[in-house]
Amino acid sequence: MAIDGLVILDSTGRPIVQSGFRSTSPAYPLLHIEALNDALSKAPRPADADPVLYVPNTGIDGPSACCHVKRGELRFLGLMSGDTDPLYVFAFLETFISILRDYFGQLSAETLKENFDVVYQLLEETLDAGGHPSTTSINALKDIVLPPSLLSKVLSVAGVSGLASPGTNSHPFASPIPWRKVGVRYNSNEIFFDVAEELKAVVNKNGGIIVSSVWGKVHTNCRLSGTPDLLLSFSNAQPLTDCSFHPCVRLQRWSRDKNLSFVPPDGRFILMEYKYTPGGVHHVAVPFALKASVDCEVNGGSFDVALTSRLTTKVLENMNVELYLGEGATSASCVVSNNTSWNFDPRTRILHWNIKAVSPSSSFSLKGTFSSTAEQPRPSHAFRARFEIPQHSFSSLKVDQLKITGEMYKPYKGVRGRSTGDVEWRW
Amino acid sequence: MAAQGGQDAKFFQRGKIQEFRAELQAAEAKDKKFTKRKTVLKKIVANITMGNDMSPLFTDVVQCLGIPLLEIKKMVYLFLVYYGRSKAEQIHLVIPSFLQDCNDRNPLIRALAIRTMSYIPIPVVTEALTEQLRHCLKDRDPYVRKTAAICVAKLYTADPRKAEKGGFVEMLRDLLLDSNATVVSNAVAALSEIGDRQDGVIFKLNLTVANKLLAALGESSEWGQIYILDSLLRYVPERHTDAELMAERIIIHLQHANSAVVLTTIKILLYLMNYMENRKLMDYICKKMGPPLVTLLSSGPEVQYVALRNILLIIQRRPSVLKNDVKVFFCKYNDPIYVKLAKLEIMYRLAREENAREVLAELQEYASEVDIDFVRKAVRSIGRLAIKVQPAADACIQALLDLIETKVTYVVQEAVIVIKDVFRRYPGKYEGIIPTLCENLDALDEPESKAAMIWIVGQFANRIDNADELMDDLTYTFMEEPVEVQLALLTAAVKLFIYKAQSDTSKALVHKVLKWATEEVDNPDLRDRGFMYWRLLAINPTVAGEIVLAEKPAITTDSDRMDRGALDQLLLHTGTLGSIYHKNPETFIRNAAGKALTDSPALNPLSRQVLVPLSRPNIPPAIHVPGPGPPPPREASVSPVPPTAKPAPPAPPQTGDLIGASSSADTLDGEGENEHESGEHGDEDSLASPSGSADPYANLDNAFGSYLADEPKPQADDHLTRLF
């Protein structure tokens, strides 16, 4: 089980940063980069390139494989051989990306180049000699790799100890809890829980739900001093199934009484993820209805779409409906209701229809035609609609209380809900 | 660090070796806080990362190693990591600094020194490292100990025998009992790396140590958990209860946020289940494995893909996992193609009478999609569904006919190909649709569909009024057709003649075709078959008829599944490349060690019967050439058929390839019982007798059956099926 190395490519497919490939020939990473760029150019859409690319390496290193993910303009490659788990590579890439985000704020070729020395130190610490991921907990990492100085200056002003100067903590891993540093101090102690739920559904042309599921994440921002031990209980945790937790959560306790008992990491983290399954066989309802007809003719077609909110009190925000108009689609012209806008992206051949706010029970329409160089245009057979509902949760998950032990202070607690949806509506 | 973010970009300028050297020398003067040298070093490191060769600066850079500043040390060490290997004759200059740093007060520097030394596989360095490592493994600081553990694996790579003689393996073993969980998991990782080597010591766990490791699991980082969980594959339970207790201890890790931890846990549970007896517990574990697998599907497409390929294996071995969750695998139109194809295959596997209608409705939806590759496979899956689930066959055939109506050529072609198989599965039931198929003859321009249609015309020539006309038209281009179609034409012409011996057209036709096949064509297969038919017909046309039109073995979906022994073995690779490509990794990837179930009194009997032993090559240590590089091929006979990359991962489960000469006997165990899921036992452990297959045509089925949606091409040895 080992990752041979990591390479970060810019938007043109050129390497910006790569880890030292110590046990392979220098050509090894290059062969993978080449194989990847080749696969990307051959795939009908770049997103269709096989995520685990087999590289029948003809060099002295023998065959291997390359896992890749794209984040923003950057593409991250994890090179692997042997009995390695691709998921392990993807999990590492994901972790490394979030570390980079934490250190540099945003990810771009520029930031990586500006901070290359930090990036290299991070690589050294997170991916050990034999390609074993080692220290990836941000709290522990900041003891051994200092964030870019601007950031550390800010931190030292803010009074966070242990970060500002390298000398103060020469005993990394001194904390008995790997995800939490010792001696964290805040002037005001606060913790925020952000419950974000996403509805994913597929609806057939009659409005019948084929699949629908709600996935939730509890984003947490913890700014508590010392080593607090928290107990979070929900008033209605029963419909939460398929949960997965941050390592800090005591799993035994959850399986006993569905309470979350944990010593939180410092800063932002995802406390838990879950799937909401309403009782019985009911589906979670899709909060709007779409009536659509699409007709294809020679070199074009027409469509007529009506969208109605099924909500009675809340507003659907940033509704975005899109339709892929098929290979060869060149242009579209539409008439839309007031307060909505449309545009056609000739590069992706996707028609977008944006509605800022769909107020309760309101309706909107989109009518139009499109032209295509294909004699028989084949638009996709489904619309994709994405939306947000602020201050809402599909599961109506409620935090009952948060108990804190081990520390004397009373923290400020905040809980917020927000929901998004991603619905495929077939026509 | 000192330089503010935003200014470092200027270091990315091509610099000249001489300039850097001069700058370094100039920096030595009046450089109280070493800021000048730091700047130059930064430029040099930036140049290394741009791929410029900075190795001529070796002597200049290593002089900075004496500077007592962590930041500078880190850069010098980075330089050494890059160029140390190639500077064998100068490396001795650095040894004193290495030794000094190994005893520094700061644990970060101690760790940095041994880590860097382990990257430089030059004898003098290795020699020095050996000495230092001994006390670093017992350092009071856990950071140093955990780094030292990994360094042992590197030392072992550089010189296995020396590491063994030095007692390092034993010291690593002692670290398994360290008080710090990170140290424990790194020791496990190092031992696993050593144990995976072809020439390494064998790393096995006994129950006591395995339990100790489990105790460290809770405090480990996610990566540590993966190492520890993975190492449990090296523990062979001797009693059922041992396996059962261990499974109960690790099952909780199915709820970890890290997807790799989840999949590794599943791998170990699947492994332990081979050694269990308690049916209730096994059912419980199967039930528990479903939700985390579904959760993986809510992640990004890359993780979904890995999960899907693994699910495909898992549900073949343990059909009760996810059996009610087919809807989870319905495709979204904007899923990447590799996700769609993997989902399609799983939908087919999970299809049963109870959900066949929903599955069919989805497949029909997909048949109108944009992506041609996907549409083809959806159409083909409709046919396979008809073959697999008898009660749904009528609806599937109707769906196929509707699709043929669309006249979209690639849809029609795929439909024809599967309908041929449907005819074989349900003889005498659907021949009424033949005229509809004949109407679309002109649409067929691909060899596979054409050959399928020709097979249908020949096989049912007695039911098609104008069969001789059709055949006459079809043979018109005989000489230009690919061999596949020519073979089909030859057989069909013979069949036509046997059905309609009186007809002059058919007589002339068979004569013409036989003559072409035997005299004009270069392909030996075609010629041989031509001669064979010719003689058969010449000697005794009646007998020829009996032979050529003999009753064919019915097609079943049994052999769609993988051989059980191979499956057991592949599941040990759950999550690894092997499970993506459905091949044992050692056959196609470098540095991969094979895995096999190990026999023990607790192993369940059926698994034992199909046990595929693993041969560990006994390379005498003396011959071994130390150093990195690909391992020697394990067996000449295992042809490393590299999977071809397009379009989706390759590798149909060519059982022969995976397990050598094993017969296809195991497809038998309980198709009826498992596919149709009679209930209590959701998996294949029920001991059906794996007697040798009574059906001499079992291999024929394979020719048909093992095509996966992934792998559109039927096997080449399909000739036999066509011959008759």
From TrEMBL, chain A:
Record-linked PROSITE patterns: MHD
Domain MHD: 188-427
UniProt keyword terms in alphabetical order: Membrane, Protein transport, Transport
A Pfam family assignment: Adap_comp_sub
Record localization: Endomembrane system
Family: Belongs to the adaptor complexes medium subunit family.
Protein name, per record: MHD domain-containing protein
Species of provenance: Somion occarium
TrEMBL record, chain B:
Location(s), subcellular: Endomembrane system
Comp. bias intervals (Basic and acidic residues): 710-724
Keyword Transferase: no
Keyword terms of this UniProt record: Membrane, Protein transport, Transport
SUPFAM superfamilies per UniProt: ARM repeat
Clathrin/coatomer adaptor adaptin-like N-terminal domain: residues covered: 23-537
Major subcellular location class: membrane
Bias kind Pro residues: ranges: 627-653
InterPro entries the UniProt entry points to: AP_beta, AP_complex_bsu_1_2_4, ARM-like, ARM-type_fold, Clathrin/coatomer_adapt-like_N
Keyword Signal: no
Region (Disordered): 621-724
Family the entry assigns: Belongs to the adaptor complexes large subunit family.
Function, in words: Adaptins are components of the adaptor complexes which link clathrin to receptors in coated vesicles. Clathrin-associated protein complexes are believed to interact with the cytoplasmic tails of membrane proteins, leading to their selection and concentration.
Official protein name in the record: AP complex subunit beta
Species this chain originates from: Somion occarium
